[in-house]
Structure formats: C-alpha cells, structure tokens
Amino acid sequence: MNLKKKFSHIILLFPVFLLLLAAPLTAWADVIWTPENSFYESHENECEYIDRQYTAKADTSLYEEPLAPKASDTLEGGATVYVSFVYRDEGGQEWGYAEQYSANQSGWARMSDLTLVYDSKEFMKDHQAELNENASETLEAGDTFYIWTYPESGKRDDSLYTLTSELTFDTAYTDSSGRLWGHCVYWQAIKDFWVCLSAPGNPDIPAAVTPPATEQPAAETPVQPEQTQPASTSSEPPVPTGEPAPNTPLSRQSSISWPLIVLPIVGVIILTCILLKIFWKKKD
Hints:
The chain is α+β, with helices and mostly antiparallel strands. The protein has 4 helices and 16 strands. It folds into 3 domains: 3-29 and 256-283; 34-117 and 218-234, SH3 type barrels (Roll); 120-196, SH3 Domains (SH3 type barrels, Roll), CATH 2.30.30.40. The protein starts with a helix and ends with a helix. The chain crosses the membrane at residues 256-280.
C-alpha cells in the first residue's frame, strides 16, 4: 500500500474513532441506579424494581438488611422516601429499600410502614376508563411546555421546556374542566409525566377540587415491575421519574440522542471523502 492510500485510510478512520468514543454517552438512558447495599448486591435477583415514592406513616425503622435484629436508622413520621427495589422475605413480608436524600438516610423498611404517594401510575389506574390509549397527540418543535406529575395534580416541574423536535404522547385524558392532557413514557431522561396540551405553557393550572382516591398502605399495593426494563445497572442515585423528589423540582439526567452524534460524524466522513478526492486529483 503506497503512502497516499495509507494517509487516506487514516483520515477516513478518524470519524469512526470519534463514533466509538461517543457511543458510551448514549448508555445513560438505559441505566437503572441500584442501591449501594450489601444485602441488595447479594440478593439482586430476588429484588423487584418499582421506582416509586412513599411516605412514612409514623417513625419508621430502617435496617441494613431485612430481618436484621437492630435498626440502623429511623425515618421521621411523614417523611417522603424513594423506594427503588422491594424484597419479599420467606414469611411473605415485603421490604423496600428506602432513601431520603435530604436527610441522607437509607435502608430497608417494612412496606407495611409506608404509604404510597399518589402518582401518575395510580392516576392512570384510577382513570383507566377515561384514558384514550390510542392517542397520537403531538407538540411541535419550538413549542414550550411544563411537565406535571398527573392531570390536575397541582405539582409540576419548575422548568419551562422548549422542544427541538416533535414530541408524541401515547395516552390522552380530558379533565373535568375540558383541558386535554397528554402522557409521555419517556423524554430526555424524564419518565412518566403529563403535559396539558390545551395550555402547555400555563404554569398555574390548579389542583383538582376533588382529591384523588385515598392512598392505600404500601402493603396493599401490588408491586409491579417497570414496563420496560433498562439494559444495565449502576450504583448511583436513581433515575428520576415524573414525580418530583421531596422538596425538590423534577431532576433531569443528561441524555444524548444518537442522531445528534451520528449525523455530524457521517457528515464529516462524506466531507473528508470529497476533500480527499479533490486533493489527490489536484496532486495528480
């Protein structure tokens, strides 16, 4: 192979090298954050991922592992915690790995001591008959919108988002005031949220006068796995859902889409080929 061909191949391989470097960045969207807990690590296959928020009914003991003889910490009554995984012991008792970030507390709690925080999943279950699950509602590029936990919840993210491309909603719901809402499973690393399609940029949509159905104790709530299981796990804080963490706005995880990475690199390859052809043609 002469020097000219070697040089050409090196130039052409450079964009491919860039693509390989960029590939790991897209893995963020496929990650479940797992607890840094020795019991979880040794019983991972027996734990079920639920990704929900709960409230402690009263002062609630936390343990390093289920059935431990001594508590490692205590949650104050009324504290809201994130439960990532649930484990069922041999006696049928359910334990959830509970984390309260503001107080830096974590450990296994009896699910019977917790109450599920009403969220999008519960809303969709309660309003199943009123949902249009064949919806194809969209927002266009350039549209601005707020994200809500569920229709007429009164709970939204503080950020006003602007779309760079079309966003399609899988389910639609019309509230008691005639407003149309759209549900999105996943967008920009934010999961399970609602947008008021009738007024996407309105930050002041009030909560419903009639509150949602009475929250049921966690022990009476069946544990359901995520509809889509992510591809990998990592010992880091959990990926946020549409429900905001206690006393904080909705968190967002950085995500990078494949088109934004691949298309520029393909463009570089094509441009490189054209320039090489022109360069060697002139040199010949």
